[in-house]
Each structure stands twice: as C-alpha cells, then as structure tokens.
Design goal:
By secondary structure, this protein is mainly alpha-helical. The longest helix has 28 residues.
C-alpha cells in the first residue's frame, strides 16, 4: 500500500518577533470581523504572543530532532501546550475556571464539531492501537448512530459516562477551550444562545496557543484538518490503515 508522510515538526525558520506578529494577525483575521474588535484584542494578544512563541515554538523546536517518532513528538507538544494554558490560567487574569482539570464535563464534546490535524490524528491512532479489541469495538459500535460530530451529535470518543476514552491524547482544541460558566455553555450549545465571549474566558488567548501549536507541527504550510468521528470510523475497521496512521503515515487513498 502506498504511504504518504504527513509531515513532522521542524525547527523554527522565522525570527520570534516575525512569527509572533504573523500568528497574532492570523488570529485577528479569523476571529475579529470588525476594526473595533481588532483594536480591542491586538494589545492582549501581542502581550502574550512572545512568551507563548518562545515556550511552545522556539524551545520545542530546538529539541525537535531528538526523537523521530511523530506521535511522540506531537504528544510532547500537546503536553507543553497544557502547561502553557495552565500557567496562563494561574496568572490571575481570569476568573476561576468551571471546567474540571481531569475532564468530566462533556459540554464541549457534545453538539460541537470536533476537528484535529493529521498530526494529532497520528497520536489518536497510536493510542487506539493500545486499546483492547473490546474497547475499540465499543467506540466503533457507537459511531454509526452519531454520524459527524456537531449539533445533535457528539464526539465518538465519549463513553457512556461522558468521559473521554483517550483523554491524554485529546487534540489541541480540547485542551485550550476552558469555560468560566457551565450554565453559559449549556445555553450556548444546547439552546443556541450567544452567551458572549466570557464563556471561553481565555478568548482570544486560546487561539494563540492553537495557532502556535499548528505552526510548530506543520511550519510553512496550511494545517490539514479531519473531522473526529469520520477519522475514527475510517481506521477502526482498517487495521492496516490504523497502523499506518500510528506510524506517522497515511494510506494514500485516505488522504482527506
């Protein structure tokens, strides 16, 4: 079977100041539709950007050649992102988070579209390989009734208790979305109400971490994203494909 390498983290090629400005601009263009919004959030992003770039991109880039195992590299970056988010939350800029540290609130995982980069998919595949056959069968069994994640559905990794089957390997989006109000999340997600930007109290800081992470895993390119349930369905019934993803490669016909 033909395989396609999906790319690996590499050392930073841009100066820290240039990269910080690039990522800040990308966040503003994606999230702020008005000039007023850009003026409001630019100083907040620029204040944090250099510290995040130094920690998540520059420092990790210096060590990128120490391990050629793609899932291990990406998992290390995800753990570094966790530390970055935790330190930001402990900076006393924000109210106390409502999200439990070890999971247990499935609001983000329910009714919202779950996407991941192909590099993160390699991490998920590696963790799936470590599950028993009955554990993999449980995930595969619930996927047909769910369809794609999004409104009216949920992430296929949620078990019957609302806990993530692969919490330690969850994508970057799942790690940076932290809420200060469970009630506001319920209103926004289930009832379609716009509770305002205070729901994600790290906004727009969360985007800064995500953009930095994706720059690190795929520098100089446009990240290639997959929908979680579609990806799970494609590999849980294909042992060869799952093994290929877990090794940091994808079967040519599965390139989405």
């Amino acid at each position: 079977m033909e395989k396609i390498n999906i790319g690996r983290p590499s050392p930073m090629k841009e100066l820290p100041d240039e990269l910080a400005a690039k990522i800040v601009n990308a966040v503003l263009e994606e999230r702020c539709a008005s000039e007023e919004g850009m003026r409001r959030y630019r100083p907040l992003l620029e204040e944090r950007a250099h510290r995040i770039i130094a920690r998540l991109v520059v420092d990790s880039g210096e060590d990128s050649g120490s391990n050629n195992d793609l899932p291990v590299q990406i998992h290390a970056l995800l753990n570094l992102a966790d530390t970055t988010v935790k330190d930001e939350l402990n900076s006393h800029r924000y109210p106390k988070p409502a999200c439990p540290d070890n999971g247990g609130c499935a609001m983000c995982c329910t009714h919202m579209r779950i996407v991941l980069s192909v590099q993160e998919a390699a991490v998920i595949a590696r963790e799936l390989l470590g599950l028993t056959e009955p554990e993999k069968a449980q995930i595969a069994h619930r996927l047909p009734s769910l369809g794609k994640s999004g409104p009216g559905s949920r992430c296929g990794l949620l078990d019957e208790q609302g806990l993530c089957t692969l919490y330690a390997a969850r994508p970057i989006n799942c790690r940076t979305y932290r809420s200060c109000s469970i009630t506001a999340c319920e209103d926004r997600v289930r009832l379609g109400r716009n509770a305002g930007e205070e729901v994600v109290f790290t906004y727009p800081f969360d985007d800064l971490v995500r953009k930095s992470f994706h720059h690190m895993v795929q520098p100089g390119g446009t990240p290639h994203f997959l929908e979680m349930n579609t990806f799970l369905a494609s590999v849980l019934h294909d042992d060869e494909g799952l093994a290929a993803w877990a090794s940091g490669e994808i079967p040519a016909e599965d390139d989405a």
